[in-house]
């Protein structure tokens, strides 16, 4: 497969690049910082310089052309304020989806976050609320797009613990908890392979089910 990862120097993105490159897929990674190109190459991907808060949809579409699927793995990250939750977690996601449509790329995996789409729980501050709102609006935008075979993946709290290979992956609600970034990357790699799993919103936690079985259970009956 030919995959483009938006936000290609992210922690999940680099893990996903390695998995995809190891199985023989071609990976292009959109990064905004030239200092990140070497890490992206080390992970087996081809870096493409593109700041998703500056670029237009036409430029991004040019970077996506020919791909089978796009993975939106960018995020404003910890330490950013409410404004960048809007420009990255919502704005860059919408831009990337626009670009995918223009480029004729059908597959689109959006890394969202557990709790998106619900009113944010109180007491966690305005930046958290902006984050949950931005993720929810990016999801809503994607669900309206008829030309994309979208998948929305909502991991719980991310950790850098070693991979477990076992998850709970299902439409919400599945409860709350944590999931390793390695396991998130492995789930995305498996979902990219399961072309008949599409237009689903999926919560993801570490759990009891082997990743291949969790993805197989999402496939239309009889496959
Ligand atoms: N932390 C959690 O517990 C949690 C839970 C659920 C979901 N998530 C979501 O999971 C996703 C991936 O998480 P992660 O830990 O892998 O994220 P990460 O390591 O923070 O990576 C995010 C990437 O987005 C890139 N980015 C930011 N602004 C950009 C721009 N304008 N143009 C291009 N790239 C840009 C960053 O690049 P720079 O280094 O250049 O800024 C960074 O490489 C994020 O969307 C996050 O919100 C997180």
TrEMBL record:
InterPro entries the UniProt entry points to: NAD(P)-bd_dom, NAD(P)-bd_dom_sf
Superkingdom of the organism of origin: Bacteria
Pfam families tied to this protein: NAD_binding_10
Organism whose genome encodes this protein: Actinomadura livida
Gene3D superfamilies on file: NAD(P)-binding Rossmann-like Domain (3.40.50.720)
Domain NAD(P)-binding residues, every copy: 7-193
Transmembrane regions listed in the UniProt entry: none
Name of this protein: NAD(P)H-binding protein
């Amino acid at each position: 497969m030919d995959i483009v990862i938006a936000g290609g120097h992210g922690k999940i993105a680099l893990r996903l690049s390695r998995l995809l490159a190891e199985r023989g897929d071609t990976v292009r990674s959109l990064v905004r910082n030239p200092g990140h190109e070497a890490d992206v190459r080390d992970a087996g991907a081809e870096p493409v310089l593109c700041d998703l808060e500056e670029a237009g949809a036409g430029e991004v579409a040019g970077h996506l052309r020919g791909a089978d699927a796009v993975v939106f793995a960018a995020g404003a990250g910890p330490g950013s304020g409410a404004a960048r939750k809007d420009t990255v977690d919502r704005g860059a996601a919408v831009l990337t989806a626009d670009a995918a449509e223009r480029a004729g790329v059908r597959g689109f995996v959006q890394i969202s976050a557990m709790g998106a789409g619900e009113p944010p729980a109180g007491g966690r501050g305005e930046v958290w609320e902006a984050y949950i709102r931005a993720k929810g609006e990016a999801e809503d935008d994607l669900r309206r797009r008829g030309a994309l075979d979208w998948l929305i993946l909502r991991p719980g709290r991310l950790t850098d613990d070693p991979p477990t290979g076992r998850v709970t992956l299902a439409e919400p609600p599945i409860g709350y908890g944590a999931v390793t970034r390695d396991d998130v990357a492995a789930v995305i790699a498996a979902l990219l392979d399961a072309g008949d799993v599409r237009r689903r919103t999926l919560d993801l936690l570490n759990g009891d089910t082997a990743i291949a079985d969790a993805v197989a259970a999402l496939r239309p009956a009889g496959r």
